[in-house]
Amino acid sequence: MSSKPILYGTYSSPTVNGVLMILKALNVDFEFREVRPLKKENQTEDFLKKNPTATIPTLETEDHKFIGDSHAIAVYIAERYGKDDSLYPKDPYKRAKVHQLQHFCNSILFTSCVKAAYAPVFARQTNTIPEEIYKRIEEAFRMLERFLEQNRWVACERLTIADFNCITSVASLYSLRPFTEKTHPRLYDWFQRMMAMPIVVETLSSDAMTASKRFLQKQLSHL
């Protein structure tokens, strides 16, 4: 039985990739076990015992307890394995801002934009994305631009777990609605800095991510 934390998920998932980046950033020795929702591997009796909501990522701790939701997992990892508070500030205001951006990532970037745009395509229900989704993406990018007027990083003046969670969704949306230094100068600067990090490059360049991009390009008639 593994004494390492175990992350359940798939390498093509933005929410899983955010957690993977945080694990790597903190040099955590962990095990990865693939669970593919498209094959309903998250609906098995065994997995539902681990996470009743059937979502990925799911983390199994070293003492064999289970945590669902990427943002809850990110907080746990930062608290459990962080040698300092650099990725998850102890200051109450800064920590609240991290939580704010985590919720923004979950509700706006991922659920309202990434999931709404891509889930029907992966399920082969459509090969187009409604204009309404593009409008949501554009508004989400405007919100991020305003957040970044306050700091160089999304939540505060330094890199935090919120940046890793946000970059995975932003990278997924960028292929649908690219932004430039002229249209979104602060977002563009943050995006370039994040995409230059080896941890980010490695995670977003996995074979699974490459295969997902190829599938989407094939399915979406306008890409």
UniProtKB/TrEMBL annotation:
PROSITE patterns documented for this protein: GST_CTER, GST_NTER
InterPro entries: Glutathione-S-Trfase_C-like, Glutathione-S-Trfase_C_sf, Glutathione_S-Trfase, Glutathione_S-Trfase_N, GST_C, Thioredoxin-like_sf
Entries under SUPFAM superfamilies matching the protein: GST C-terminal domain-like (SSF47616), Thioredoxin-like (SSF52833)
MF annotations from Gene Ontology: glutathione transferase activity
One annotated GO biological process: glutathione metabolic process
Ranges annotated as spanning the membrane: none
Xref: Pfam families: GST_C (PF00043), GST_N_3 (PF13417)
Identification of the protein by name: Uncharacterized protein
